[in-house]
Structure formats: C-alpha cells, structure tokens
Amino acid sequence: MAVSAVLATSMSRWLIAADDEATDEIAESANSLWETTLDSIPRVGIALLVIAVGWMLSRAIRWVMRRYWMRRQTPSFARVMSKVVGWIALVVVVLLAIAVTFPSVKPVDLLAGLGFFSVAVGFAFQDILENTLSGILLLFRQPFRSGDQITVMERSGTVAGITIRETRLRTYDGELVVIPNRDVYKNVIDVHTDDDLHRIDFVVGIAYENDADEATSAIVDAIRSVDGVHDTPAPLALVEELGVSTVDIRALFWVDSQRANSIMVLDAAIKAVKRKLDAAGIEMPADIVALQATPSFKAALQNEAEVTPAGSVRNDSPT
Question: HSE on the CB side for 134, CA within 13 Å?
Fold first, then answer.
C-alpha cells in the first residue's frame, strides 16, 4: 500500500509538472506571436504605403506612356501597351512590398514563387492569356490599324480598335463584331485599305457580230470619263472569254480603296459603259437558251394528245 501511494503521488506530481510546462510553452508561444505581430505592424503599414504609392506611380506611368505612344503609334497600341507597362510596374511594387513586410523572404524565392504562380495562372486562364499575347503581337506587327477596312474569318468591316482581348470590327451594315485576338492572329487577313488605291473590275458581254477592238476602246473611253477613276495605272478592257452567246470583256480600273468610294465609282462606270456601247451601236445580247421539243411539247402544240399538268402525254389519248 505504501509503495502504491508513493507511485500515485509521484505520478500526480509529474502530471502537474508536465501540465505547467505545456502551459508555459503555450504562453511563451503566444507572447512570441504577439510580439512578432506588434513588430510587423510597422512593416505592414510601410508595405501598404508602398503599394498605394506604387499604384499611383503605375497610373502616372500609364498616363505618360499613353501620351508618348499616342504621338508615335496607333491609339490601340498606346491604350494597350500603356496598360501592360502600368501592370508590370505595379507587380514590381507589390514584390517590393512583400520583401519589406517579410525580410526573411529573399528575392530569389519571390521570383521562384512568381514563376510557379505564372504557370498555374497560365493553365487556368489559357484562353485569356492567348488572346492577350495575340493582341500584343498584333499591335507590334500592325498588319492593320484602327480605321482600316479588312476581311477576317469571312467578316468584313472597318477596324474600330484592338483591345487586350479582342479586335472590334464595325461592319458595313453598322453592326459591331467582336473577334478574339487569337482568331484574328491565326487566320488570313485581307487589308483592303493597306494602299490608297485598289483595282476593281466588271464583265461586259457583247454580241459576236460586233468588233471586239471597237468595243474595248469604247469601254476604256467610257471608264476614263468617270470621276474617281485614276489615270495611273490606266484603265484596261481585255477580252476574257468567248461565251456561248457573247464575247466577254473584262474592264479593270483603279479607284480609292475605301469601300464607299469603290461601290459608287463602280456604279458610275457600269452606267457610263452601257451608255457608250449603246451610242456606238454595240449590242449586249442576253444569253441564248436552246429549247429541245419533247414528245409532250410537240403533242401539245399540234393538239394531237392530252397533256397532263406535269407534262406527260396520257396513254389513253389518241396519237
């Protein structure tokens, strides 16, 4: 009994000592955490101040770069690239603020973490990043600019602008088409206003009885008289094909590349050519259509048989 009492007393004292030791460790840890928090408050405040100043600095950089590029580049380039530069400046400031708040974090660790974060973001926002990168490449290459008239992915219109994510196209019907930059970058682009002039053409068919040289000369003279047709390069009229019922002549001439001007000049040129050919007595015949009489057509003409509405001859009709 005495031994049991001694063991129980020893165990009780050991448990009390262990409990006191654990309590002291917890209290020491809490005090250390509190002291660390108090010590970090000034650094956190400085970091927030650095971020606030950095944000204002990035806005200022963005404004300055936009004004700078507006005088040397397109509005879309200035708008997008100034945003990119502002974001880069803000990211650098945030990294600096983290280094101020946590002195134990080394710049190498920040760069490594940023690389891992970039990979994760790249997988999560692949489409957005692809459109952004395509937009930046389009702005640097500049295959077209705001105001150009283009055709891409079978959609034609005037470029309203290029943003971080999409290319905005205003169709000739007045509708706004938004095309992701990656689709624009990967597809064939027809830039109709890359040059001040472009060539348009149309085909005229004359009768075989008329002289082709006389007709081509008349067509060229008529086109030259139209306002908006440029003398250099000179208009042309070339025999293109000997059709079934006509000799086809293609008229080619150069006009201003804007679509509104092109269709107006084309309309005036076609009218001028028709008036000139009519005045010269050059015939523009319709297509010749050959009809082959079927038995039912012959029977209907001669009233020799009864023909059904579908064009067949009734079997019980006299022949």
Answer: 19
pLDDT tens digits, residue range 135-166?
888 878 888 888 899 999 889 999 988 887 88
The mean pLDDT value for 120-132 works out to 64
Helix 75-101 and helix 107-124, axial crossing angle in degrees, nearest 10: 130
pLDDT tens readout for residues 219-242? 999 999 999 999 989 999 999 999
**Where do you find CATH 3.30.70.100 in the chain?**
197-279
**Where are the CATH 1.10.287 domain residues in the chain?**
2-124
Tokens of 235: 């208009």
Q: Which residues contact 302 (CB under 8 A, 6 or more apart)?
A: none
pTM: 0.58
- Domain range 197-279, its CATH number among 3.30.2000.10, 3.30.70.100, 1.10.260.40, 3.40.50.620: 3.30.70.100
Higher-confidence residue: 282 or 319?
282
Six-digit token string for 159: 């470029």
**CATH class label, 142-191:** mainly beta
Sign of CA dihedral 53, 56, 62, 63: negative
- Burial classification of residue 195, based on how many CB atoms lie within 10 Å of its CB (0-12 exposed, 13-18 middle, 19 or more buried): exposed
3-class SS at 143?
A: coil
Please give the helix or strand (H or E) that residue 157 lies within, else none.
strand 155-162
The set of residues, in sequence order, having a beta carbon less than 8 Å from that of 126 and lying 6+ positions away, is none
Boundaries of CATH 2.30.30.60 in the chain? 142-191
Decide if 185 contacts 140 (C-beta within 8 A).
Answer: no
Q: Which fold has domain 2-124?
A: Helix Hairpins (1.10.287)
